[in-house]
Amino acid sequence: MATRMAAITVWMAIWWLTEALHLAVTAFIPFVFIPLLGIADPKTVAFQYMDQVIFLFIGGFILSFAIEKWGLHERIALRILMTTGTKADRILIGVMVTSFLISMWISNTATVMMLLSAVFAIINMTDRQMADSDESNGLAKALLIGLAYSATIGGMATLVGTPPNMVFARAYQDAYPESGGISFFKWFSIGFPIALMLLVVCYLVLRFTFIGKTSSADAVGPGYFSEAYKRLGPVAVEQKIVGSIFAITALLWFTRADLDLGIVTLPGWSGLFHQADYIQDSMVAVFMTMLLFVIPASPSKGGFLLAWKDVSKLPFDIILLFGSGFALAKGFELSGLSNWIAAGLSIFSGTNVLLLIAGICLIVCVISEFASNVASIQLVIPILIAFQKDLGIDPLLLLVPATLAASLGFMMPVATAPNTIVFGSNRISVSDMVRSGWWINFAGILIITLLVWVFLTFL
């Protein structure tokens, strides 16, 4: 059975890497061929396609639709830009911080789509303000690349920020049930410092690569952002409610499980229920987004905060991709392929842990430049779980770096959806992405390797 499961995996890997067919079509392979080849029955495979983690992803997307519908993202962006200022380098900071903060909670693709029109408005203004076209083009490149990269980096900070994190959370809980899974707070305590350091590196690379001497000049008029904010009018009731739901959701995620602060442990609110382990972050996401469908908008607007037609753009292709990865992992387990791979990788058992982490980050980073980050981590995680059981080290030392490295797709336009979106503006060339992305990938591998090793080994 291990050989048959390996054939399915290789088949999927080829189609994922080459995108010979749409990723969602490839996602159907496990459902058909795992039962057909006698590895597992259809009911077991189908169960993997609607795991509870998928509802966490759906909830995050619905929340992003509400933010976009009521224009809350524009208000947040302009508030940050009013604070950072109008000089070229300050505008870059404002755009990147806005993208980073929003993508911590919703999909990086949704973040870029929501902010893209605002960034183009800034670019059009700078094109008129700056007499030197080279300077305005440099700033435009920095803003567009910064928007995409910071959205990807922000997604690394939280469990809900990007699909690979949720894939990891589910695989870790299934493979190591005695661990109790990884809480929102525990991931944040590792992911946020790494993401923040990488954001700083990304800003410095883009600042010195594209902006240069123009950073001291005003790229837009002194009152541009404040005037744009005034045009939005007073904060609408709907924006206040959606913002409150967004904040409460984040708070509930952080405080669901016990918070181990070292000196003291703060009990999580899930302990108030008889079966605390039944309460998951996905339930919080779905419950809070349900409120958006039952809380009415103001009488002048009519209806509710969200209608079902507002969420018709749910990315079902990504949902199928999630499910296929979970089915693949189940096939690894049931066929014995995991044990076979672990035996083959036993030659690396004596390798220094730090070098091992760096090597894993490098391999996953290279794969993610040419394949979807979800596909990359779904191919790698079952192998790493099998490898870890043979090594006998903390599984988080392998799985967390691999998961974070799956988001290090900064060199190629096809590496991530945010890269593809901004590349489609025709203001960026492939060489622009390569010369900035190479440094950020290198820094990302270094930061992830060192910080994960320090956090999990010593803290």
Structural notes for this entry:
With 459 residues, the chain is mostly helical. The chain has one domain (2-299, 316-458). Helix content is 70%, strand content 1%. It has 21 helices and two strands. The protein has helices at residues 2-18, 23-26, 29-36, 42-48, 52-69, 72-84, 88-103, 108-129, 133-155, 163-175, 184-211, 224-231, 237-255, 281-294, 316-335, 337-344, 353-370, 373-391, 396-405, 417-423, 430-458, and strands at residues 259-260, 265-266. A two-stranded antiparallel ribbon has the order 1-2. Helix 9 packs antiparallel against helix 11 (184-211) and helix 10 packs parallel to helix 18. The longest helix has 29 residues, at 430-458. The two termini are 41 Å apart.
